[in-house]
Amino acid sequence: DKARIGVTGLATMGRNLARNLARHGHPVAVHNRTPSRTKALVEEFGDEGTFLPAESAERFVASLERPRRLVIMVKAGPATDAVIEEFAPLLEPGDMIVDGGNAHFADTRRREADLRERGIHFVGTGISGGEEGALHGPSIMPGGSAESYESLGPLLEDISAHVDGTPCAVHVGPDGAGHFVKMVHNGIEYADMQLIAESYDLLRHAAGLAPDEIAAVFREWNTGRLESYLIEITAEVLAHTDAATGRPFVDVVLDQAEQKGTGRWTVQSALDLGVPVGGIAEAVFARSVSGHAALREAARGLPGPARAGAETLPGVPDAIEKALYASKIVAYAQGFHEIQAGSAEYGWNIDAGAMATIWRGGCIIRARFLDRIRAAYEADPQTPTLLTDAHFAEALGDAQEAWRNVIAIAAKHGVPVPGFSAALAYYDSLRAPRLPAALTQGQRDFFGAHTYRRADREGTFHTLWGGDRTEVTA
Ligand code: NDP
């Protein structure tokens, strides 16, 4: 008998994805460069379903029913190209290669174009949810041709997370659309985590709460509109005590955040697309700042206010909740703007509301909040920004005093809040009747004759700054 689908690359993700498929009754062929992993998988979990182990690429391909569905779960980058080159010559027209790794969408576009020429469908797919998600139901964001989704979609939907009976998997769009959306998902995740971190920092150093008290605040928040996986695990981490020292776990961890690159990609591609994603960018930079140990050491003695420490500021937790919710709305609005800009640039025709729908389960940013975003796109699929959705606009209005006070308190106590500040600055920039960009244009015209447009009439103009300062049509 043949396997319905095959997985090659059986490290953390691939092995759990293969088990997920098998547990759902899909016979799955399994293969890994180093055969010991394949053997170990079948030995440990062989009773969970039908596994067809193969040591060679040829045997692996031969064990797949046609059209063949071959999932690659290997280290992103050159390894993916190497594995594609190993398998593509063994496939026939109509077969599919699915890359579930964290590939850059530009690589996916290149690979898709190349394989399309060879008659093979290439499906770059985002898979979110880490190790646990891969096993119990991830959020799946496949790109590639609509034809490939017809054959692959039912399988992916079957093994994905489900929320209210709806699978957290949908065809995102052609070629690199899936990996692009996964990238932005991760950028949003960075922003969400940074905003939560800033909230913690303020609760600790402006409201004077201890880690276990802050855990209780997050637990409370998790019963309201902020309910989400990230808030839930934040409470868990803050309540955890280090066994070796008896101190709060958060106090013994080195305060240098690491990153694997998808947040950076989100910002790089936003720059290319000309989309302002300050909230996401500040989250990436905040991790970067934290990692510059020598720089931080050199600057530690610089003057500034002492942190409040044990001083308790009443009402601050509630204000922070509002600031967090408002800033979170902004960060998601920026991420969705990037998705819409990418979709327009590459002709993907991405349904933004569908992305919110498949992020409700399985992935790291899963949250009640995403239902709101789905509803916002349902109400107005063409909305230029989520900020103006009735629900979000009301929440932003309600947060005004708190949001601004929290940032003021942070500044007063020397607690850095780049995420909150960037979010508010974006919000105020969008709502401003006039921006100082007019002055910037004047400067550019002065030093570089870059010309400007006028608010009161059509055309492009230049002022003769070095001469009699008359205005000429450019
Ligand atoms: P790793 O990224 O650690 O990759 C290890 C796997 O890649 C092994 O199976 C290894 O084979 C294989 N491999 C590496 N180089 C080659 C090569 N040149 N030829 C053939 N096989 C090769 O595994 P993960 O399971 O952590 O992740 C897999 C993919 O999923 C990555 O792209 C990752 O970015 C992505 N991802 C990971 C998530 C996570 O939480 N870990 C979440 C979402 C996506 P061997 O055993 O022979 O060394």
UniProtKB/TrEMBL annotation:
Keywords: Gluconate utilization, NADP, Oxidoreductase, Pentose shunt. GO terms for molecular function: phosphogluconate dehydrogenase (decarboxylating) activity. Residues 178-466 form the 6-phosphogluconate dehydrogenase C-terminal domain. Its EC number is 1.1.1.44. Pathway: Carbohydrate degradation; pentose phosphate pathway; D-ribulose 5-phosphate from D-glucose 6-phosphate (oxidative stage): step 3/3. Gene3D superfamilies: 6-Phosphogluconate Dehydrogenase, domain 3, N-(1-d-carboxylethyl)-l-norvaline Dehydrogenase, domain 2, NAD(P)-binding Rossmann-like Domain. It catalyses: 6-phospho-D-gluconate + NADP(+) = D-ribulose 5-phosphate + CO2 + NADPH. PROSITE patterns: 6PGD (PS00461). The keyword Mitochondrion does not apply. SMART domains: 6PGD. InterPro entries: 6-PGluconate_DH-like_C_sf, 6PGD_dom2, 6PGDH_C, 6PGDH_Gnd/GntZ, 6PGDH_NADP-bd, 6PGdom_BS, NAD(P)-bd_dom_sf, Pgluconate_DH. NCBIfam families: gnd (TIGR00873), PRK09287.1 (NF006765). Catalyzes the oxidative decarboxylation of 6-phosphogluconate to ribulose 5-phosphate and CO(2), with concomitant reduction of NADP to NADPH. Homodimer. Belongs to the 6-phosphogluconate dehydrogenase family. This is 6-phosphogluconate dehydrogenase, decarboxylating. It comes from Actinomadura sediminis.
